[in-house]
Design a protein that fits this description.
The chain has helices spanning 7-10, 56-70, 76-90, 97-113, 117-131, 144-149, 154-164, 179-191, 195-205, 211-230, 247-257, 270-279, 297-310, 317-325, 351-359, 379-391, and strands at 326-327, 336-337. With 393 residues, it is an all-alpha fold. The protein is elongated and about 95 Å long.
Length: 393
């Protein structure tokens, strides 16, 4: 950092390069009770009568969140609960045909996500019956997204989705191309590893979505950003996520950056790599012993510093800050001192390494004051750290 001396001036709030993470909307499902005759969806329910109804807007947010966060491993139990809650909503008679068609379309998406394409097709048929689509000239497609998602062949599904977002089909007078269609095409592009195309679509569409849907799609957009802007092309898709990173995936990302960072004996696998990092002193004593555990900010410090030294940084940095902020009482007594960072103790085993990385802006003080060593680390945060480290001289 130019024009600054001393760690106190270096420890500044996160810079503009920091990726802003948007938290997805979280809706807690409860085992609720269904309607007795004549009650509204918001009314009291008698015990044992089934799931609570849900609004279409809430259902769409949950659908997107399940797809984006879980990827190919959709939570079947949660998707089934969503199906049941939409069924409760459908039991209420809707006088508005537009509302009814939208409800059938969203219900079809939920069925499809839960692994029931037969019921999804039935929902599409009901929406078509109301609109007259396929039987009346000039009838508007009531469920263009569901219709495409029901196509089983991936290449054909992608081709149809690309055709469905052509501006000529959606006059500006009617609002232009529906942003959800653009985002869903973005998800398909991600499956094809066309991250630049997906990022472009998300950037066009997200600002036009309601806040809840915008936040639900945001992690997908951030994953694309990791590929396109951070530039780590070999990274596994499961790493480039805004959700917490596992220790196993953190070590996988490190191995792609530097296969020689540790030496493994025998067959290389995530579990043996974790043990090797512990044995080499590249993880703290408090770091997890299971590859599935979430990586914390403290877990990234020692391997990132080792990578920095491997690339030519002086090893003396490993004691620089203990000397700067410490006092030697003499007579062979251990050095004592006071840390400039409130939650990073002078006696911590990552004290010097963490301050070295912060001073070089590889890591940051999230709130401008504290290191937050116990905070979970996301894949995107770790990839950004690797990118910043590669630029440090």
């Amino acid at each position: 950092m130019k024009g600054k001396t001393g760690l106190e001036k270096e420890l500044t709030p996160p810079g503009s390069l920091c990726i802003c993470f948007l938290a997805a909307c979280i809706f807690f499902f409860t085992s609720c009770l269904s309607l007795s005759p004549g009650q509204s969806a918001q009314g009291q329910r008698e015990e044992g009568q089934g799931p609570e109804a849900i609004s279409i807007e809430e259902a769409e947010i949950i659908l997107v969140r399940l797809k984006v966060q879980a990827g190919s491993r959709v939570d079947k139990a949660e998707s089934q609960r969503l199906v049941e809650r939409l069924a409760t909503l459908r039991r209420e008679k809707a006088s508005d045909q537009t509302y009814a068609m939208r409800l059938y379309a969203v219900s079809g998406e939920a069925y499809l996500l839960s692994g029931d394409p037969v019921s999804a097709k039935d929902m599409l048929r009901r929406a078509d019956d109301i609109s007259g689509y396929g039987s009346r000239p000039m009838a508007v497609d009531p469920a263009p997204l569901l219709r495409v998602l029901l196509v089983p062949e991936r290449k054909k599904r992608l081709s149809l989705m690309e055709s469905s977002v052509k501006p000529v089909l959606w006059p500006q007078a009617s609002g232009g191309v529906p942003p959800r269609l653009q985002c869903e095409l973005g998800l398909l592009y991600m499956e094809e590893k066309r991250f630049k195309d997906a990022l472009s679509l998300f950037d066009m569409a997200l600002s036009r979505l309601p806040e809840g849907l915008r936040e639900a799609y945001a992690p997908a957009r951030e994953s694309c950003f990791a590929y396109v802007q951070i530039g780590i092309s070999e990274i596994n898709a499961s790493i480039a996520q805004a959700k917490p990173l596992s220790l196993g995936l953190m070590l996988q990302a490190l191995s792609l950056e530097s296969p020689a960072l540790i030496q493994q004996e025998g067959e290389a696998n995530p579990r043996s790599a974790l043990a090797a990092y512990h044995e080499a002193g590249l993880l703290t004593k408090e770091s997890g012993k299971d590859t599935g555990q979430s990586a914390l900010r403290r877990d990234a410090v020692l391997p990132l510093f080792a990578l920095y030294v491997q690339r030519g940084a002086p090893k003396t940095l490993a004691s620089k800050y203990s000397v700067r902020y410490g006092v030697s009482p003499g007579m062979g007594l251990p050095r004592t001192g006071k840390s400039p960072v409130p939650d990073l103790a002078y006696e911590s085993e990552i004290f010097d390494e963490a301050l070295a990385l912060v001073e070089r802006e590889v890591m940051e003080l999230p709130d401008g004051k504290n290191f937050m060593p116990e905070r979970e680390l996301s894949g995107l945060e770790f990839l950004e750290m690797l990118k910043k480290l590669s630029k440090v001289k």
